[in-house]
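Help wanted!
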Amino acid sequence: GQNIDQPTEMTATEGAIVQINCTYQTSGFNGLFWYQQHAGEAPTFLSYNVLDGLEEKGRFSSFLSRSKGYSYLLLKELQMKDSASYLCAPLDSNYQLIWGAGTKLIIKP
Amino acid sequence: IAGITQAPTSQILAAGRRMTLRCTQDMRHNAMYWYRQDLGLGLRLIHYSNTAGTTGKGEVPDGYSVSRANTDDFPLTLASAVPSQTSVYFCASSDTGYNEQFFGPGTRLTVL
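Answered by r_m:
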């Protein structure tokens, strides 16, 4: 079956760094997306990895290891506005996104 | 430019009633999707359309139907609503199946 595993909730301090891990099992693989979703709002795109390695985009970076079925999202210089849920979503062989339940990130001052 | 819009924003519906959720995008994207999101669960795909004139079933299609008469519109119909269809419904679109998806603001539906 297809499965996504990510922590339910994480807490971090403003200005710090946090890493949100995601492991996945899918039928085929065509890349992995990370989305951010603030409470009561729609998900918005953060990053896409299709090859192994690190993709950096400002304060956010995303890493992929296809052989391990593993990805992480790294957030640096945390700001209060980063309090949100972060959704890991690999793309399967049918080009359908398989969504995890998300990691709720709480930022404390 | 609105991107992708959904209507209504929220709705309370009596069980057994028919309801259509509307979704319109102005990005000329080929693919469109309907998801439902329930507390503690990931987004679940209801139906999708890879291009105008075609539709497909997702993970949880029962009780829902869609049509894609043109590129811009992708309505979702609940033929006879049941309380288990209480959820937040998101419409999304993407240029192709492997591009990022853009989401509408969502419709919060309560079936009593």
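OP: Thanks! One thing I noticed: Chain A touches chain B through 21 residues (CB under 8 Å).
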